Amino acid sequence: MASTDAGTAHAEMARLGVREIVRRLNQALGVALVASLAGNKGKKVSYGWAKVGGLEPKDDSLARMMLAYRAWTHVAEAEGDHVARLWFISANPWLGEISPPLRQSARIAHKTSWRQRRR
Length: 119
Fold this sequence. Notes:
Blueprint: H1 6-16, H2 18-29, H3 31-37, H4 45-50, H5 59-79, H6 81-89, H7 100-118
Helix pairs in contact: 2-3, 2-5, 5-6
């Protein structure tokens, strides 16, 4: 398991690379949840991100997945994989009783409607 030290976690992510991080998240959380966490509407887009020679995620999606991977490793190390998965898919008291993907979807919807109002 990865260390919870921030510097060590960052070094591990750099060593693993984006494709391995996406592959691990896909395996742990499922492709639809990973796509949602990355802020992408395509439910299977993370398959392509995990493939050698596949598409590269955009910078904002990559940043979200890196954060998700750090959160996953911290929770899984402390509480186990099952609890970590529940943390991502269930109502979360630290996030106002909603799951991280739903919270992210709400942010994207708010940002989109704000942009449309500015036009």
